[in-house]
Write a structure and sequence with these properties.
The protein is an alpha+beta fold. It has 5 helices and 8 strands. The longest helix is centred in the N-terminal third of the chain and has 41 residues. The N and C termini lie far apart (95 Å).
C-alpha cells in the first residue's frame, strides 16, 4: 500500500515539474539538430561549388589537349568589321584573331576563333561543350574591363539552345559604374555556335565614359553574331 502511495506522489511531482518548464529535453534536442543541419548545408554548398570548378577546369584542359584544329576566320572578321566606327588593329596568331578597338573615350577588344572538333573525340554532349567553353571565355573577357566586377553589371543575359546537330550559346552584360565624379559604361558578350563539328566563338568587351560608344560596341557584336553561320 505504501509503495503505491509513493509511486503516485512521484508521478504527480514529475508532472508538475514538466508543466513548469523545468524538464525540457525535447526543445534542446530540436535546437541542436537545427544547428547541425544548417552547418552541414553550408558545407555541402561550398563543396558543391568547388566540385563544379574542378569539373570545369578539367573540361577546359581536356578540350585544348584533344585533337582540335583552328579554321580561318578572316572572312567573318572582314565582313563584321565593315563600317566599324572604332580605330582598330587586328592580330592574327595561334588560330585566333584579336581585334583591339579604340574610341574617343574608351576602348576594348574582340576575340574571334573557329575550332574544328571533328577529330577531337571529346566525351561530352553539345550543350555541355557550349555552356562550359562559353562561360570560360565570358569570364576571361569580362575580366579585361579593369576595375569592373559582377556587382557592376546592370543587366545580364545567358541562354543556350540546340536544334538537332547544332547549338548556340549567348551571354552578355551591361555595365554602369559611377564614383561620384565620372560614370563608366561597359558591355561584354560571348557568342558561340557549334554547327557541322565547327565551333565559332566571338567574345568581346568594351569600357568607356561615353554611353554612345558602348551602344556602338554592342552593335558591332550583333554584326559578328549575324555573320556566324548557324
Amino acid at each position: 500500500m505504501k509503495a503505491k502511495v509513493m509511486t503516485a506522489i512521484l508521478a504527480a511531482f514529475m508532472l508538475t515539474m514538466t508543466a513548469c518548464g523545468t524538464i525540457s529535453p525535447p526543445i534542446q534536442n530540436a535546437v541542436t539538430e537545427t544547428t547541425t543541419t544548417t552547418a552541414e548545408s553550408i558545407y555541402d554548398s561550398a563543396a558543391s561549388s568547388e566540385d563544379e570548378k574542378i569539373k570545369t577546369d578539367t573540361f577546359i584542359a581536356e578540350f585544348f589537349d584533344s585533337d582540335i584544329s583552328f579554321v580561318d576566320t578572316s572572312e567573318l572578321v572582314t565582313e563584321a568589321m565593315k563600317g566599324c566606327s572604332f580605330d582598330n588593329e587586328i592580330d592574327n596568331s595561334n588560330g585566333m584573331q584579336k581585334i583591339t578597338l579604340k574610341g574617343t573615350n574608351g576602348g576594348g577588344s574582340v576575340e574571334v576563333m573557329c575550332i574544328d572538333l571533328s577529330k577531337s573525340g571529346l566525351p561530352y554532349d553539345m550543350e555541355y561543350i557550349l555552356e562550359n567553353l562559353g562561360d570560360h571565355y565570358f569570364s576571361q573577357t569580362a575580366a579585361q574591363m579593369n576595375g569592373i566586377t559582377e556587382d557592376d553589371f546592370v543587366s545580364s543575359y545567358r541562354m543556350t539552345s540546340s536544334v538537332v546537330s547544332k547549338g548556340k550559346y549567348q551571354r552578355y552584360s551591361s555595365v554602369q559604374k559611377s564614383d561620384g565624379m565620372a560614370t563608366q559604361f561597359g558591355y561584354t558578350e560571348t557568342y558561340a555556335v557549334l554547327s557541322e563539328n565547327k565551333l565559332t566563338v566571338v567574345s568581346g568587351a568594351f569600357l568607356s565614359s561615353d554611353m554612345m560608344e558602348r551602344q556602338s560596341f554592342s552593335g558591332l557584336m550583333s554584326k559578328f553574331a549575324n555573320n556566324v553561320k548557324y
